[in-house]
């Protein structure tokens, strides 16, 4: 969409001949009538995703080289992205990405973009970050560039695990939700083998806006929480368990067959998917 078209649309909104909702719809449709992406050769960066879906593109680190990840990160920075999330990033590759980002980069076409469109909007520092650097969280295998946003979700997302062994998946979910602007409370090692541990946190369960229940073995935690809470429960089966757990399939089937209403299920070990969905729910405002 050309600048003249944007100005014309804004003038129509100001004159009352076009509603705000109609203008937003036209902007959302824009990438389907234009490029809507930056072609990096090895990747096509979706530059319109945040407007369409409410969150910018996330980088899946597995299967990509450090140079490819770094190239995508730099392109996102040049587009003004303040928080860049990289999932499934192993420690060695994270170090290589960090080294890549600290090197001077060649000036490309993206450098010529109008910087006035890239001013931060309400970002706050969660902790000191190196200039242009990568913050790495080894438990979750997540890398984050930039500053965490202000928490603008409606309520609190509770992330609960059956056992300590489920924490890597839980941290992937929790950090994803935090990077998307949510307040997160962690309840770890509260599985059904010692149900009193979960019962000790009933206030958190009852007041949560969304709950992510993460468990391996037989995956019973999701059904238990689903029977206690009045909010959506996102169940995440993990690959933790002995032989007949079939690397998470047993927990997956248990969660899919839960008799508790309001329980949905994501893929095995998919903490990112759970955190993203929980954030979408937590940003739905009551009418």
UniProtKB/TrEMBL annotation:
InterPro entries: P2CMN_synthase_LarB, PurE_dom. Residues 155-287 form the PurE domain. Residues 104-130 are annotated as: Disordered. Residues 109-129 have a biased composition (Basic and acidic residues). NCBIfam families: LarB. It comes from the Bacteria. Pfam families: AIRC (PF00731). Transmembrane segments: none annotated. GO terms for molecular function: hydrolase activity. GO terms for biological process: 'de novo' IMP biosynthetic process. SUPFAM superfamilies: N5-CAIR mutase (phosphoribosylaminoimidazole carboxylase, PurE) (SSF52255). This is Nickel pincer cofactor biosynthesis protein LarB.
